[in-house]
């Protein structure tokens, strides 16, 4: 029968005629080229790094192929497919080729595709691979949206090819990425220190403003749609880092894909304990009853800010009373020539409110987009104030600040102005420097009801 005929006959027995037809049509073996083909046990995830070796005895180190049957039951929903291969790879779903890296040699490259599965049930999925010369590696995964595909590297700089991989389910209702390694490695038998990881997900994100937050021990970087948006690649005990980003719909894609975005989180552990936590949450939700501070390395409030505080932060602050003296508000911000914006939503009773600030240097205060205090000039900390009448309900307070040179501080207080209400026919009061009983000496209101029967005639008030 010959080598090729025996190979095909064995494949028919092990994986069936349907896969064999795909093999023949794909060019894994033909009359002009032949090589051994590795056919492992059926499985949805394909994670192999053979280095300079081969899959098994009888397979050479170079010039071999592999076929992976990832068919099975898949729920209705959105999936992403990612491969990492040296050399060639292609993936087909129900006979449709969605990844094709077959016509050229690719040394350790990733390929990605989206599968919007609108039908629950059995699906035929196949990954084909070919190794030419040198190192050999193939990773192929079908991952639900919001789950994370993790590649692990036995060094702290993501060098070389991954040596382990797994799919991680999202954590909680916020669908965070979370791995707490403690003093262990990422998978059983893996090294406990000096390793790195790259996490990938595809997710749907409506257009808007978001806070992207990490909590990592040690270094971390985050990419959104291939753009670096957070970079803190340093040794550190567990530390929170966050930034605010504007996310828009993608252009040049089908309408059903315009809100699909790729997120990549890179992480490394140096020594001892290791942990990585990532979240991306709407900005509006983070300012509910908690200040969110945005720090900019300029005095024009421009660029992507560094974020502190927020509803889901480990560094919440409920009062705006910050004194940096001659220092800096953030490790990535200079001690002079910086600016900041602070935002908070709060439920307030109806009434007249007074806002008082003390700052060095410039400051502006808004309540529901109404400018209440405007002192955008250098200042030595003299107090400023403004009043605004509010209806009962939720209101947004926004404070903008800049620091020129020297010391830097900001303090904000606001309160409802108390009101005395009395029914008096005649209003004759002189409190001098005092006040009505139970009221402060300054900033109070009086409402006097002088309603009564008046005879017809002329009056002066």
Any key phrases for this structure?
461 residues; Jelly Rolls; 2 domains; 6-stranded antiparallel beta sheet; PA14_dom; signal; PA14/GLEYA; PA14 domain-containing protein
Overview of this structure, please?
With 461 residues, this protein is mainly β. The protein has three helices and 33 strands. It has two domains: 41-280, Galactose-binding domain-like (Jelly Rolls, Sandwich), CATH 2.60.120; 287-416, Jelly Rolls, CATH 2.60.120. It is 6% helix and 50% strand. Strands 13-12-15-20-17-18 form a six-stranded antiparallel sheet, with no helix packed on it. The protein has a six-stranded antiparallel sheet with strand order 23-22-25-30-27-28, with no helix packed on it. α1 (3-15) crosses α2 (17-26). The longest helix is centred in the N-terminal third of the chain and has 13 residues, at 3-15.
Summarize it.
The protein has two domains: 240 residues, Jelly Rolls (Sandwich), CATH 2.60.120; 130 residues, Galactose-binding domain-like (Jelly Rolls). It has three helices and 33 strands. 6% of the residues lie in helices and 50% in strands.
Shape-level CATH architecture of the largest domain: Sandwich
What's the number of helices? 3
Strand count: 33
Computed CA radius of gyration, to the nearest angstrom: 32 Å
Report the sheet-strand fraction. Answer: over 45%
- State the shape: elongated
Structural class by SSE content: mainly beta
CATH class of the largest domain: Mainly Beta
Provide the CATH superfamily of the largest domain. Answer: Galactose-binding domain-like
Query: What is the terminal-to-terminal distance?
Result: 119 Å
